[in-house]
């Protein structure tokens, strides 16, 4: 049999789904985390019946009326797939709003079981809910649950109730008598009646103590952490601390040990192959695969520490405050209040981030968010950031922090430009982000989240990154006649001849050599490839312990092997971060934008943005540090002027559209 989990956003559906199926889908301490449906079978120890039960986790919805697309996923699923039973997860701390949806669900004629979740929070607040009364008033079973607890959490009872009600008839507590959903007035009137009905139930069953001490303390904390101006420097300090721990202190410490093991594998493989193996095969295996993949995987400890810390921040409720602070700016530049959620999710990976834009109803806002979300530095970009921070800036924490805030700044500028170009009125959205309560973050949840990211990282490294590195190594070893490239003639290799024309375009940015161009190109397949390819083209296997490396390569450190000044290195880093994301993320952009023009416009914008930012960084930086402009200033300036000019032209055209609309 099939059961559907539905309920308001952030009520704990995915937590409950994970608890009853043993899966590890992403849980976030805010609304709108799940945007797709997820399926799994209920664990045997909870399901005492002999029927197999499949549970489906759905995106949160506030009501059944077609408001946003994720609500329609929920509505369509419930209507089309005809689950045998619906579990309605109700946030016990927010009863009246949740029950609005419950009464709508019950009208569908499918048996409903209510899981009164987050009951632990109510106990803390000394709010009590009379379950027997509630169950009687609604006409369906109600079970208290605590989805975050591993035992005595009410889940076994919940499942047994589910089995019990299957096929039974329930009478809906409230009957709207078939409202016409096309008629806004009728819907409004019916909603009002429903609210009155629900509030009647709530006042009967709930005994709530008025604002507790705890609540006032929370409000006081929010006045500072979510303050419209103070919130930003506080966030900057928090991010700086996160980067300092993960990229400067604890992360590199762990990475050093880890890289030692990778070096061990390298040495072992080298020894195991012996003399008989052909040097080409040997270098493919050693430099291309173990070296290239190892260089990427070497950053795993840094990434794990970072994600662990971010998960703690999310879990304790702080990230939701950051979202509120940013939200103000985003609304001003014509993005939706909901745009912040995709962007925060995008710091993990741009793909689910872009997918999360589905919850934005306004088409322009949704497309703009999908186009701008990839500017947030994602997990795959972290090794690139860590590499450059380590090699050129002595592991400085400001590098990563600056990249985050640059990403945010670019998003704000980008959003302004898009509003201007589309010539649409900047509709202020009134979406209000709900603030979850502060709580002590769970180490267990953060650990689980960290390991699931690590697993994904390792899988990616051992498949796509490995293949790319092998291909890069082969393309570097051979020329077009498929002869081995002689030493000193590296420029004739397949790789060099493909990358060289692109390198010319990059001269004004400070890194016009084929090796760096090749790494940036492979970065479009997956951003980790930038690190892998640099390792292969410069035969560097260890990016973590750069002192040791200085000995191996005979005095030259990584920075001079790459031949970049610090300014050019920063420019290269930004180019890799702020040009289009990997192909997979572009695919996600394509499916959420549903429009060719927007997709190509978005990609063009991302290229232009990356180019302009890198150009300015290199040229201005070089001017400041050396007193003269960098190479290729004039052609670069012309290219940038053309790009900027074109955008200004489009913005002017957008303005005219607005004026015409105003006249009409
Ligand atoms: N204290 C407490 N917290 C809970 C409980 N169940 C879930 N949570 C927390 O509530 C938050 C939201 O959980 P999710 O499972 O992501 O909620 P969701 O309903 O799937 O949310 P969307 O997918 O955004 O609609 C997380 O921070 C959970 O840890 C519970 O029983 N008690
Ligand atoms: Mg969810």
TrEMBL record:
Alphabetical UniProt keywords: Membrane, Transmembrane, Transmembrane helix
Signal sequence annotation: none
Origin species: Tepidibacter hydrothermalis
PROSITE patterns linked: G_FEOB (PS51711)
Protein name as annotated: Ferrous iron transporter B
Domain FeoB-type G: 1-168
Membrane spanning residue stretches: 224-243, 289-313, 370-392, 398-419, 454-474, 494-517, 524-544, 564-586, 598-620, 632-651
């Amino acid at each position: 049999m099939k059961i559907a989990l539905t309920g308001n956003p952030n009520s704990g559906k995915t937590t409950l789904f994970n608890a009853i199926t043993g899966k590890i889908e992403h849980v976030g301490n805010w609304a709108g985390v799940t945007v797709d449906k997820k399926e799994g079978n209920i664990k045997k120890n909870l399901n005492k019946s002999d029927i197999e039960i499949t549970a489906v986790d759905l995106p949160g919805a506030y009501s059944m009326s077609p408001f946003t697309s994720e609500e329609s996923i929920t509505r369509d699923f419930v209507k089309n797939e005809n689950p045998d039973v619906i579990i309605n997860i109700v946030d016990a701390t927010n009863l009246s709003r949740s029950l609005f949806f419950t009464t709508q669900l019950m009208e569908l004629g499918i048996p409903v079981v209510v899981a009164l979740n987050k009951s632990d929070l109510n106990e803390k607040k000394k709010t009590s809910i009379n379950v027997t009364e509630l169950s009687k008033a609604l006409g369906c079973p109600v079970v208290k649950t605590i989805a975050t607890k591993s035992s005595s959490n009410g889940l076994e009872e919940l499942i047994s109730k589910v089995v019990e009600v299957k096929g039974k008839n329930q009478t809906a507590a409230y009957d709207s008598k078939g409202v016409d959903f096309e008629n806004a007035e009728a819907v409004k009137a019916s909603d009002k009646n429903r609210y009155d009905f629900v509030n009647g139930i709530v006042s009967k069953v709930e005994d709530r103590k008025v604002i507790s001490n705890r609540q006032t303390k929370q409000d006081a904390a929010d006045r500072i952490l979510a303050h419209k101006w103070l919130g930003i420097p506080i966030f900057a300090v928090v991010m700086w601390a996160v980067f300092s721990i993960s990229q400067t202190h604890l992360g590199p410490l762990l990475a050093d040990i880890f890289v030692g093991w990778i070096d061990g594998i390298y040495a072992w493989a080298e020894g195991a192959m012996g003399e008989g193996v052909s040097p080409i095969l040997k270098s493919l295996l050693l430099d291309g695969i173990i070296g290239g993949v190892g260089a990427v995987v070497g950053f795993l400890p840094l990434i794990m520490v970072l994600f662990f810390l971010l998960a703690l921040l999310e879990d304790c409720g702080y990230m939701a405050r950051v979202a509120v602070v940013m939200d103000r700016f985003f609304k001003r530049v014509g993005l939706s209040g909901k745009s912040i959620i995709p962007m925060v999710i995008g710091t993990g990976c741009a793909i689910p981030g872009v997918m999360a834009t589905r919850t934005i109803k306004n088409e322009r806002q949704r497309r703009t968010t999908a186009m701008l979300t990839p500017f947030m530095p994602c997990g795959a970009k972290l090794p690139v950031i860590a590499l450059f921070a380590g090699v050129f800036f002595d592991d400085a924490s400001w590098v990563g922090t600056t990249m985050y805030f640059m990403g945010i700044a670019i998003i704000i500028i980008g959003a302004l430009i898009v509003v201007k170009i589309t010539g649409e009125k900047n509709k202020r959205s009134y979406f209000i982000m709900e603030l979850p309560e502060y709580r002590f973050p769970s180490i267990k949840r953060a650990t689980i989240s960290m390991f699931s990211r690590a697993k994904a990282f390792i899988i990616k490294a051992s498949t796509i990154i490995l293949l790319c590195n092998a291909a890069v190594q082969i393309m570097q070893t051979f020329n077009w006649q498929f002869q081995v490239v002689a030493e000193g003639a590296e420029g004739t290799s397949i790789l060099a001849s493909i990358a060289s024309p692109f390198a010319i375009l990059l001269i004004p940015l400070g890194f016009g050599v084929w090796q760096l161009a090749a790494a940036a190109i492979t970065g479009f397949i997956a951003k980790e490839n930038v690190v892998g390819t640099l390792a292969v083209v410069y035969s560097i296997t260890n990016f973590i312990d750069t002192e040791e490396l200085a000995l191996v390569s005979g005095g030259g450190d990584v920075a001079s092997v790459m031949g970049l000044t610090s300014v050019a290195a920063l420019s290269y880093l930004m180019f890799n971060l702020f040009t289009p994301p990997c192909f997979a993320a572009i695919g996600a952009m394509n499916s959420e934008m549903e429009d060719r023009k927007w997709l190509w416009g978005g990609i063009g914008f991302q290229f232009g943005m990356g180019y302009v930012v890198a150009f300015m960084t290199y040229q201005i930086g070089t001017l400041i540090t050396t007193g003269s402009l960098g190479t290729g200033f004039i052609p670069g300036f012309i290219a940038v002027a053309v790009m900027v000019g074109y955008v200004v032209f489009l913005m002017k055209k957008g303005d005219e559209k607005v004026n015409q609309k105003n006249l009409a």
